[in-house]
Structure formats: C-alpha cells, structure tokens
From TrEMBL:
InterPro entries per UniProt: PepSY_TM-like_2
PANTHER family in UniProt: INNER MEMBRANE PROTEIN WITH PEPSY TM HELIX
Protein name listed in UniProt: PepSY-associated TM helix domain-containing protein
Chain ranges passing through the membrane: 20-40, 158-180, 192-210
Keywords: Membrane, Transmembrane, Transmembrane helix
Domain of life: Bacteria
Length: 211
C-alpha cells in the first residue's frame, strides 16, 4: 500500500508535466511571431522621439461624373459609406478607394470621407455642386505602420481579434511556464528568487520612478 502512493504521485506528476509542456510549446508556437513583433515595436515605441521619419504627403484631384454626383444622398446627420458605384468612380479618379468607409453627410456643400490606417492617413472630399474631388494621403513609414499595429490603431476588425487571440496565447504561455517552474523548482533553487525579481523590478520602478 505504501509503495502505491509514491507511484501514483509520480504518475500524476508525469501527467501534468506532459500536459503543461504540450500547452506551453503550442502556445509558444502560436504566439511566437506576434511576440517578436510586439517586442520589437515596444522598443520602437519607447524610442519614438529618437527615430526620425518624414511623412510623405500626396495630393490628388479628379472629377466625379454628373451621373454619379446625382446619386449622392441629400445632406443628413448619418455616416453611411458612399454608394458602391460612386465609390468606384472616386477610386478611378484619384488613387484613394473610399469604399466601405464612413462618410460625413452633414455639410451641404461637401461630402468628406476620412480613411485613417496604420502608418498612414487619407481623406477624400467631393464638392456637391461641381463634382470636384480632392484627396490627400500621408504615409508615415513602415516603423509607424508597425507601431500602429502594436497599438491597434486604425487596424480593422480582423487585427482587433488577432490581438485578443494573441493575448490569450501569451497568457497560456505564461501560466503554463509558471506551473512548469513550480514543478521543477525543487531541483532549481534560483527559480523563485528570479521570479520574485521579475515581479519586484517593475513594481519598484512603478512606485518610485513613475510620477
């Protein structure tokens, strides 16, 4: 009876070791690329003032055909996108595609569509009377693009959900790592002092050096 107990404990420990190792490496594999991206962009965001970037601004203009101009809805307080055929006509006239973006219909003389994105800004305006199209794009460079992805700024719904799933994978990776540390700590006496340092350092910095 006495021999069965240690054997049972070994089996339980082996089971949990196998499970934790499996979840740990799977979550590591899933979050690897995202973790690398967020680590690098953490550095670039922290040193944003030291990284110079000159925005490239491009202005363009065109003309909306009268047939398309007549399809613009009357001014209202809504923000519906442009009608599909009008959006296609705008995209054919200037190098900006407003399809699917909310439009500002409140101005009687103009329709304005803002199209911000990661690392860039863009807008297009349509004169309701003449059909003149004015557009502007601002490209702030690939570092700004990656920084905006880090912040989830103007990155769309798919990226929004990617960040959530990536965060869950990181939590699984961290918690399984913590439990693995606990299982191996008996043979590695420096485990908990190092874990304590990982907690104490940011806590002390937050308490004494962030005002």
């Amino acid at each position: 009876m006495g021999k069965r107990q240690p054997r049972k404990k070994k089996k339980v420990r082996a089971f949990w070791l196998k499970q934790l190792h499996t979840w740990h490496w799977v979550s590591a594999a899933i979050s690897l690329a995202g973790m690398f991206l967020f680590a690098i962009t953490g550095l670039t965001l922290n040193h944003a003032a030291s990284i110079s970037a000159t925005p490239v601004i491009t202005d363009s203009s065109g003309q909306l055909p009268r047939a398309m101009l007549d399809k613009l809805p009357a001014p209202n307080d809504g923000h519906a996108p442009l009608p599909a055929d009008v959006a296609r006509a705008v995209a054919a006239a200037v190098p900006v595609d407003p399809a699917g973006h909310a439009a500002d219909w409140m101005d009687e003389g103009e329709v304005y569509i803002a199209m911000p994105g990661p690392g860039r800004d863009a807008w297009v305006a349509i004169d309701r009377t003449s059909g003149a199209i004015t557009a502007e794009t601002t490209d702030r460079g690939w570092i700004s693009y990656l920084n905006d992805l880090h912040k989830g700024r103007n990155s769309g719904t798919v990226w929004f959900w990617f960040i959530d799933l990536f965060a869950v994978a990181c939590v699984v990776f961290t918690l399984t790592g913590l439990f693995l540390l606990q299982l191996h700590a008996r043979h590695r006496p420096s485990t908990w002092p190092l874990v304590g340092v990982s907690l104490a350092v940011p806590l002390l910095i937050a308490l004494f050096f962030i005002h």
